[in-house]
Amino acid sequence: MSVDIHAPYKERVDTALHDKHLRIALDRATSRMKTQRADAMAAIDGERLRTQVRKMKSYVLRNLPDLLETLESNLTANGAHVHWAADGEEADRIILDIARQANVQKAVKAKSMTSEEIHLNGVLQQAGIKVVETDLGEYIIQLADEPPSHIIAPVIHKRIEDISQVFQRELDMPPTMDPSAMTGAARQILRREFLSADLGISGCNFAIAETGTICIVTNEGNGRMVSSMPRVYIAVMGIEKLVPTVEDAFLQYQALCRSATGQQCSVYLSMTSGPRRADHPDGPEEFHVVLMDNGRLNMLARGYGEALMCVRCGACLNACPVYREIGGHAYGSTYSGPIGAVISPLLNTDVTDADKLPHASSLCGACRDACPVKIDLPRLLLNERADQVAEGDTAWFDRQAIRAFADTMKSPGRYAAAASFARTGSNLLAGMSGGNITFMPPPFSAWTQSRDFPPFAKKSFRRQWRERQERRKRIGNEGQRSKIED
Amino acid sequence: MTTRETILNRLRSELRRPDLPFPLGNTPPLTSDERMTVTAASGTLWELAERFGAELTALHGTYEIVGTPTEARLALINRLLTWREEERAAYRGPKPQTGQEDQVLGWADEALPVPGIADALADLGIEVIAPAALYSSEERDAVRFIRYGVTGVQAAFAGTGSMLMVAGPKTSRAASLLPLRHIALIPFSRLYPAIEDWLAAERNAGTLTSVLRANANVTLITGPSKSADIEMNLTLGVHGPKFVHAILFEDDVER
Questions:
Q1: CA–CA separation, B103 vs B129, rounded Å?
Q2: From the list B15, B162, B228, which residue is nearest A265 (CB)?
Q3: Which chain A positions have a beta carbon within 8 Å of B172's beta carbon?
Q4: Which residue positions in chain A have pLDDT lower than 70?
Q5: Contact A136 B35 (CB under 8 A)
Q6: Among A residues 205-244, those touching chain B with beta carbons less than 8 Å apart
Q7: Could you read off the pLDDT of A198-251 as tens digits, one per residue?
């Protein structure tokens, strides 16, 4: 059973919550990644690092137009071609044109969330170009015909048992539970693809403005392959992914690695400034960079610029109690978890029920504490909810309920009566289901369908307070009496 | 108006809005005085070499530290012979002949920090291939089954066990990427405590930006290729080398 990312939000969450295998897989992976990140940040002055990355990224955003122009002129001077795309469609068209002009038959891709965002694979495949994902996790889900479910661990939703079945079904591999054997098979197959592909495609973790350099971070080496082996190399990136200087690049790089996987450095950092020089033995003849907006300007304009500082490390996903329960596919978007809930409704993407995503959070703040750029994700989620209310985009029931709540709160008598009713009713229901309330009559059933509800305390706070005051008075009087007697 | 102009103009006008909640108006850049060294290291060159080795070992790589370039050459030969024995022993049954079993994919001899590598290996029947071009499928087929790669480094960083490679006419990207086993020769004169120390040295010398811009590709390598995509199980040698061996050696080159 897998989550259909185009299904309605409720259905997606429901399917995810009832998928036992998904829960096991998520639990195994996220708890480990959470610990690794925490340890890696505790080993250094992690707070200082986060403060510095935030300062650097704020500067980038404030000076983005100038930095983009600097990046463009340096890339061009280095011999690269720079393209601008207003949206995903334009980016797809640009990439397809480059591929056609270069007579590309086959493309190898390194993991790129930006290319997922614009559904690039489908566009190229429709044009008759074979597209091979080369990140091991991406390769597995391409074989299984599924989208990624985590920013840095795309196949996090699958258990090793599931992956073994995919390899048996798609590659005729004998049954094995040995990850090295599966990796070995993928290495052989993908090596042939790397050496015979005409086009390499990657995203961009960050681009250095002062040198015109596109940087990609990988552990497997596929980033090096796609940027070095094919004749043509295209990097597609959001317009926000810049750093001013080489030193800033290495600062962000190390913050990214520690936050994503707890590594001091990833195995590879590939920095490409241009096509290969005439006397180089290897490297691409042509190097293209696609700078894409696709809703990012909209994010800035609507007051969500802070989310444009995201370095896509995935730490907020691993920290999020909601993500850990429902996984990435339930968000229905390329970007999941807290950052996905913030940016998906604002980006130019076709996410079903995107407006529901800002509600997929308990606002506990664990994401903000894990973020290497200290992005205030709970605040941004609250702002989006507030925007929805301001735009009148709230359910009738919510409006009525809030009105009733306000009326009740205005009168002490009405409040006491309502509280007494809720206390009696909730304890009755809790008694019936033994502890927590697992069902309530409509309209409250909307809550209990997916969560438990704790019964109200047997004694209200107001009553406890009254009793406490009376007790104090009594003790106070007794104390005074005893003093007099001394 | 082109897409480029549309994007830049709108960015500029949005950023000029006084009511824009983020970013704030006053956002100074991070300066070199305040920027932190993320993974620091310190000590004598020998201590730094030990730290490099410890970091690489933690990442499932291996290392040795020797006193002279001559010893480094010997260490390289021994390592290659040991690996070749390992590979032969691991093969049960008939081994497919590729004709590339006794070849090494390397940087050009003059680009290696130890002289006489190619000659020394030739005496043992091992040929060093430093291809001038790897563009066509024929050129690639001629090296694709080579099991060993030998390179130097542009710089190495003790704190993280990292090696910086700069692509050039005599320094192919392939030598540290395609073979299953990679040996890197690291003279002490190229060993720095941390990445940030190298950045500062290049910046002060006025060469930092040209290192990146003039060479098309610069790669930082930290340990053997790996993945944890299958249920967080560590597997080595996904696309790049599975075995990375560093030979650090004392040299008398002025930095």
A1: 7
A2: B162
A3: 280-282
A4: 1, 394-397, 433-434, 450, 478-486
A5: no
A6: 208, 210-213, 219-222, 224-225, 227-228, 231, 239, 244
A7: 999 999 999 999 999 999 999 999 999 999 999 999 999 999 999 999 999 999
**Nearest by CB: A210 against B134, B209, B239:** B209
Cis bond upstream, residue A443 (ω within 30): yes
How far from B63 is each of B49, B60, B150, B195, CA to CA, in Å?
9, 10, 14, 19
Backbone dihedral angles phi then psi of residue B26, each to the nearest 5 degrees: -100, 95
B56 CB neighbours in chain A (<8 A) are: none
pTM, 2 dp: 0.90
Token representation of residue A71: 């990046």
Q: Which of B108, B110, B102, B113 is nearest to B72 (CA)?
A: B113
Three-class SS state of A147: coil
Compute the distance between CA of residue A318 and CA of residue B76 in angstroms, rounded to an integer.
43
Q: Give all domains of chain A, ordered by start, each with its CATH number.
A: 9-298 (3.40.50.10420), 397-485 (no CATH)
Gap from B41 CA to chain A (nearest CA, Å)? 12
Q: Domains (ranges, CATH) in chain B? A: 43-90+97-249 (3.40.50.10420)
CA distance A407 to B82: 83
Task: Judge: B29–A59 Cβ closer than 8 Å, yes or no.
Answer: yes
- Partners of B206 on chain A (C-beta within 8 Å) are none
